[in-house]
C-alpha cells in the first residue's frame, strides 16, 4: 500500500515540467467569477471612474503654474485648492466601495471553491484518505486557498486597475505632448524582459514554498494531536521530531529568503529602468521648456503623470510574476478537484427505504494495489525467479500453494499464493437475513477487507456484492450508509460533547432515544456520572474516556442508528474483564433482529454464530458451524485449540486478540 496509482503519484511528486499557467487555467479561474458578474461589473465601473478622477491633480498643478499664479487670480486659486481636496476624498470613497465589491466577490469565489473542494473530497473513497497526509489536505484548504484568494481579490483586480490607469494616463499625456510621451515609453522593453525572467523563477519558488509548507504542516498535524503526541512520548522520539521539524521549518525559511531576494533584485532592476526613463523625460522636457516649446506648468504636469505611467507599467510588467505565484495556488487546488471519484452512484441507482439484510459475496476479488504496479512485479514476499502467469491467473506473483477448502464437510482444492497483492481472492458466501456470521482467521487474512467492502468503502476489482439481491453498485450510497452500520476496531469520537457524538448517528434522536441507546450499551450510568453528563466534552478522539467507555459509546451510536446490517470488529484486547462483560451484554442485544457480520475475537460470539467463515490469505478456506469445523480438523480446529479454547476455560491466551487485528485483516 505504499505505492501510488496514477492519481496518487501526481499528488506525491510533481514533475519538473509542471503544467504552465495558460489561458485554460486562467479561464477556469475566471469561470468562478460568473455568479458574481454584477459585482464585478460594478467594480469595473468604479475603477474606471476613480482612474479618470485621479487624472485631475496634475492638470490642477499646470493650471496653477501657467494661469492662476501669473494672472494673480484668487478665485481660480481657491477653486483649484478645493479641487485638490475633493479629488482624494471622492477617490477614497470610491476606493472603499471598490474594495468592498472586490472583497465580496473574491470571498464569495473562495467560499465556492473551498466548499466545492470539501464536497469533492467527501466523495473520495477510503483509499484516497489512507494515502493522504491530513496536514497536506489542511494546507490545500488554508495556504493554497488563501493564495487563490489573493489572486482573485488582489492580482486580477490589480491587473484591471493598472490597465485602466495606464490607458487613461496615456490618453492625457498624448493629448498634451506626444513627443514627451514617446520618450517616456522608450524604456518599456527594459521593464518587460526582467519581469519575464523573474516570473519563471518566482513561480518555481512559490510551488516549492507551498510544498515545503505542506510538509511542515503535515508533521505538525501528525505530532501535535493526542495520538501522535502519545506515540512520540512513549518511544522517546522528541529529539528526533524536533530535528525533523527544524529541517522542515528551515526549508520554509530558506525558500522565503530566496523569494525575498529574487523579488528584491527584480524591483532594483525595475527601479533603475524607471529612473532612466525619468532622466530622459527630465532632459527632453527641460530642453523643450528652455527652447520655449513647452510651458513650465506642462512639464510639471508631465512629471506628475510620469509616476502614474510607470507605476501601472511596472505592475503590468510584474503581472507575470504575480499571476505565476497566485495561480500556482489555483493549480494546487485544481489538482484535488480534478482527482477522479473512485466510487460513485450509478446514473439510475436505486434507493431502498427498507432492507431485509440478505448479503452475498459472489467471486469477489480485491486488491489495495489495483492498477498501481505492472502485473508480475515482484514484492517483498516473492522470490526473484521469473514467473509467467497462466491464462486467467489473476493472482499474479509467486507460484500457487495448494490448500484444501472445506464447506460443511465438502472438500475442494484451492490455490493460495504468498503474494499479498490480492487482499481477497474469489470469495463467495451468503448470509440470510438475521443471521450472525463470524469471521475468523490469522492476522492479515482479509477479514477487515470484507468489512470495508460491504458498506462500499472500497470497490472490488472482480465479482460482485449483493444486498437483498441488488448489486451494491446499483444502490445509492445513501442506502448503504442508512442500512449498514460499521463499528471499527478503532473507535473515533469527535472533540465534542457525548451528545453530539451520539447524534452523529441520528440527528433527530430525542433525549429518551439517547438514554435508551446508552442503557442498551451499558454506558448510561457512566455518562450520567460525568461533570456535565451528556454535554461533557470527550476530548480529542475521546481521550478523556477509557477504551471500554469509548467502545460502548460507539455501540450506543450504532444502536441509535438501528441499521439492518451490522458489520463489527469485535476487538477487546485492550479491555479489562468488566468492560468486556458489559460490551458482551450490549452486543447480545445488538445482534437481535439484524444481520450481523462480526470479526470475532470472543468464543461466545463464535459459538453463537450461524455461520463461521475461516479466512486465510484472502480466501475463504472453511465455512460452517463450530462443531462441523472442529470435526473437520482444519485451520479453524487449529485456531480453536491455540486461541479460543483457552477463552472457553475463562483465560485469555497471550496474543489471542492481537493475532486477530491486522490493519487489513
How many DSSP E strands?
12
State the separation between the terminal residues, measured CA to CA: 14 Å
* Unreliable stretches: 1-20, 371-409, 413-420, 650-664
Strand order in the sheet with the most strands: 3-2-12-11-5-10-9-8
Tally of structural domains:
2
Provide the helix percentage. Answer: 55-70%
CATH topology value of the largest domain: ABC transporter transmembrane region fold
Task: Walk me through the structure.
The chain is α/β, with parallel strands linked by helices and 665 residues long. It has 2 domains: 25-337, ABC transporter type 1, transmembrane domain (ABC transporter transmembrane region fold), CATH 1.20.1560.10; 359-376 and 394-660, P-loop containing nucleotide triphosphate hydrolases (Rossmann fold, 3-Layer(aba) Sandwich). It contains 23 helices and 12 strands. The strands form 2 sheets. The chain has an 8-stranded mixed sheet with strand order 3-2-12-11-5-10-9-8, with helices on both faces. Strand 2 and strand 3 (410-416) form a beta hairpin. Helix 5 (74-122) packs antiparallel against helix 7. The model is unreliable at 1-20, 371-409, 413-420 and 650-664 (pLDDT under 50).
Write the layout of secondary structure elements.
Blueprint: H1 6-12, H2 23-31, H3 37-53, H4 56-68, H5 74-122, H6 126-130, H7 134-176, H8 178-185, H9 188-223, H10 226-234, H11 238-290, H12 296-317, H13 319-337, E1 359-366, E2 401-407, E3 410-416, E4 424-431, E5 436-440, H14 447-453, E6 462-467, E7 470-471, H15 477-483, E8 484-487, H16 498-503, H17 511-520, H18 524-528, H19 547-561, E9 565-569, H20 577-591, E10 595-599, H21 603-608, E11 611-616, E12 619-624, H22 626-632, H23 635-648
Parallel strand pairs: 2-12, 5-10, 5-11, 8-9, 9-10
Antiparallel strand pairs: 1-4, 1-6, 2-3, 6-7, 11-12
Helix pairs in contact: 3-5, 3-7, 4-5, 4-12, 5-7, 7-8, 7-9, 7-12, 7-13, 8-11, 9-11, 9-13, 11-12, 17-19, 19-20, 22-23
